[in-house]
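The data layer described in this paper is built around a simple, fixed record for each protein. Such a record has a labelled line for the sequence and another for the backbone structure tokens. For reference, a complete record is included directly beneath this paragraph.
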Amino acid sequence: MAESDGVEFCANRAQSSMANNKNSTLRCTFSAPSHSNTLLRGLSALRDQGQLLDVVLAIDNERFEVHKAVLASCSDYFRAMFTGGMKESNQNTIELKDQP
């Protein structure tokens, strides 16, 4: 089943379920085995093209344009920084100090 087939399958089930029972709740699981690879390739392409990068990490004399969502999804440290009300959550550039 192609990824788009999964969406069509869910839509068809929703239509038939709602036609049979107006108060029913439809539960549909969408499965797309290649989605994670597609997502990672897409994020990498956006980074390579300099698009939708929403914060700069400054470390010593180097600067890295990054996606907050990617950092937060992979790191508890950055998740806390961007979602926990810290001042860095609203800054365009975040200075990271090198610790000895």
Notes: The radius of gyration is 21 Å. DSSP finds four helices and three strands in the chain. The mean pLDDT is 81.
